[in-house]
Write a structure and sequence with these properties.
The complex is a heterotrimer. Chain A is mainly alpha-helical. Chain A is built from 7 helices and 6 strands. Chain A is globular, with a radius of gyration of 17 Å. Chain B is an alpha+beta fold. In chain B, helix 9 packs parallel to helix 10. Bound molecules: FE2/S2 (inorganic) cluster (2 copies).
Amino acid sequence: MKLKLAFTGLAAICLFVGAGMALSPASIAQNAQGGTKPDGKTLKPAASFQSITNQQQRSVALFQEAGKVIQHPRCVNCHPATDRPLQGATMHPHQPPVFRGDGGMGMPGMQCTTCHSPQNTPVVGQADTIKSIPGNPAWHLAPIEMAWVGKSLGQICQQIKDPARNGGKSMDQIVEHMAHDELVGWGWDPGAGREPVPGTQAEFGELIKAWVDTGAACPAS
Amino acid sequence: MTLQDLNTSRRGFIAGSGLVIGVAIAPKFLSAAPTGVRAGGDSALLPMNTFVRVGTDDTVTVLSKHIEFGQGPFTGLATLVAEELDADWSQMRAVHSPTENKIYANLAFGLQGTGGSSSIANSYEQMRKAGAAARAMLVAAAANEWKVPASEITVEKGRIKHAASGKESGFGAFAEKAAKQMPGEPKLKDPKDFKLIGTELPKLDTRGKINGTAIFTLDITPDNLLIAVVAHPEHFGATVKSFDDAEAHKVQGVVDVKQVPSGVAVYADNTFAALKGRDALSIEWDLSKAETRSSEELAAEYVRHFREPGIEATNKGNVDDAFKATGVQSIEAEIVFPFLAHAPMEPLDAVFIKSGDGSVDIYNGAQFPAMDQQVAAKILGMDEKQVRVNTQLAGGSFGRKAQFGSPYMQEAANVYKASGGSRPLKHMWTREDDIRGGFYRPMYAHRMRGAINADGQITAWEQSIVGQSIMGKADLDSTSVEGASNLPYAIPNLKVTSHNVKLVIPPLWWRSVGHTHTGFAVETFVDELFQKIGKDPVEGRLALLKDEPRHAGVLKKAAEMSNWGSKLPEGRMRGVAVVESFNTYVGQVVEVSVGPEGTPQVHKVWCAVDCGVAINPNVIKAQMEGGIGYGLGAVLFDAVTLGKGGRIIQSNFHDYRSIRINEMPDVAVEIIKSSEKPTGVGEPGVPPVGPAVANAWRRLTGAPVRQLPIVNIVSA
Amino acid sequence: MVSFTLNGQQKEFDGDPDTPLLWVIRDAEKLTGTKYGCGVAQCGACTVHLDGMPRRSCVTPISMVDGSEVITVEGVSGKEADAVKTAWAGLDVPQCGYCQSGQVMSAVALLQMVPKPTDADIDGAMAGNICRCATYHRIRAAIHNAANSMEG
Ligand code: FES
Ligand code: FES
């Protein structure tokens, strides 16, 4: 059988979803100087965290800033703690009901590719709440060991560092993944009708790199 | 020659005991647009009467005066004909009858139409007589030809035989001669001699629905077809103030844009261009007459009516005294029901094709074809005879297509008229138009009060129902109170009142009409009362149903099927409900646990149905299964909600959820053996499942269901 | 200009490249077995096989179909298709029938991938196909029957 649309083997290296748990952006803002006020749309540049002299505190603050992306519904929705992805800004169970299946690509007969394309597909003249069907060549669910739903940012941080729960990646590979992975990048270009994650993928990659460079310290919670 | 080419050959009515058998004028069908199940081959179909045609190839085609949208009239009516005709099931076919109000009237309403689960009930004698008459004509023709007495001829499984001479023939050979016979008053079989009625015959319309060849309205695609969609407001009662169509005209394929009474119509060469064009319109709506209250605000107003006296529907004994009696405990409940869309799988649509002579053929899933015809003729300014309504298979209805005054045909005809009519036109609704289109099962609020005396007897029941009158009445609308005003339970003091609310949101019947809410309110409240007095829900009901043997019969049967009272797996609970609607009695037991979304997961439904003589158990079971799924989905997931300012929130299946296969319980159906007149099965499967699930849920979680859908309570 | 095959026949489409495959099949090619039910990948009525895999044609821009093979209910064949159709007829699954082309296409795809599906497999493959008539009970039974018939 031809699998023209099927996504090829990226499941193991997909990362980054956060839980929908509350992270207080205010707590981050206090430590960093300069930059724009957090509006949910921008990320503070990694360089702006230089003023935090304590390296561990700086590392934590960097990760907390990156957490604005990690814990955004765009990322969390496909890192569910069950076999069903979530959907939308309200993070409700995906409709129609779809299930994880092999490699997180859905069940035989209803894989992700039954509806999702290699790119976002505009929906014309239908529901005003469905302006496009999201898509990406690597569209699939994160493996269950990378589930973030129900976890704090600190727990997610620990998971990201743990090769047993990050797809066997080194920290360098983590940086590379965050900065350049195409499916991660979808978060900044999620298609019409969907709020993108804050900042840019480059800024996010720099935050992660700076976090790793400062010892990859994790928030306490 | 196919049925589609068949034209008038003669017209002759033979009246007999309320039966009108004649030869209808077949409409001028386009060969491109077959209706229903195509009759086989190239053979001629000879009319025996208005309902039965026999082909020279031995096929028997029944003209169904009822629309086939899944509830099974093609099969049901053909069964009645085949029984009396002594046909073989394999030779039976069915198509929709033409629109001819006098000949094809529903005998239950005196108008050609389908509804109220009446197809079988009103056709039972009529179609049997049509079959018996055709049989007599075939026998007479054979007797003539074989020169033997008709009385010596037998018919069995589609074979006409004369035993003494050894002569034998199929129907086809005598079709032409039989068509010229004049039948006398046909004699009907004694039900004990039925061979086909009551057996599990395969449905006639299955094949084409599996291989994609069945034609629905949306599938009619004549050349040069124009597609039209209408931009509708997001508020009920809103009208177009102004619009700008400049961007719409820029869309490749858009042909025209016109204002119509219900909005702005976009005409295009293909569907996508029509949708894109509609999306490109900018319209300013006049909200001065629109409904701008939210559902929540409406509900708050509804419950205020409880304090008013209301219209009396039933007043038996003395409810006030019963509540005042010493030692009486009073239990109360208020339940609010949301608006529900029917959401038939095929959104509304209609195709208009003008002939060379200026007459117009309309193709649509016509539930009231004669009304559609009148309405369209009026709007098009044409004589009714110049407008032919050709009923098509419809992708469901659940009540949506049965509208007095045919508002959807009004829109379609207006759209066609505004197009100028030079090209064939298909007017189609998107799913959004459907979900937001109104004609909902209205919103209702119920307040119930039950009196329990010191002996643990339920001594009084008071119920007040607030909502729109579907029939548009100022006084009592029986469809608002049916199922409550005739409470089957023997409670000595009963008072039911109704309050009609007027809204611009158009109301409509929705599969099982009043029973959708009264069944839920009555069956959940009575269950709470039983729980209060420590009675088993089945025993408690049976004790109050002593004078209602058919209610009791289905209840006992469902309980027995489920092995009621047996030990259940951990985390599961059973609930029960029994509801009569449209003279059909249905009892259901459900088994429920808390599902993955925190909503009820219904594992199994045991359903017992008493619909009198069971014409086709296969169809009856299918309707119970489907009714259960339809009713369950609504109770679990569905509401059309007006948000702040009155804007309709839901729009498609992502937020107006349909039950899906992973949410569908296993269903077991048993049919009570009965010699009562047959009654309908399209709707009665719906009402009991909701309350049965709510009852199980209340016993499982302690939380009574006072608001629907259940998913909203759980996620709130 | 988009080229693709439809039930084995070469087709070309030079209209709006954003046109969903559904409307190309229905409007341009006049193959009407594939139905419209929602237009937003919620109901499955429009399911076709695109290069052998089930696909909702309502959210498939025709531009994406260039060079692909499209099979609709009218053209689906093979032992799974035969088994599904026979099982469907055997249980009289359809009611109104409008959703059934999509149901059949999803069921055939499931059996092509999983010859002996469990109830969970059936839920997984078929939960995207809405049937407002709620024929689900028979759909499930018919899929099991089809699987059993292919074994024999
Ligand atoms: S029409 Fe494509 S999924 Fe509903
Ligand atoms: S058979 Fe009617 S929608 Fe499925």
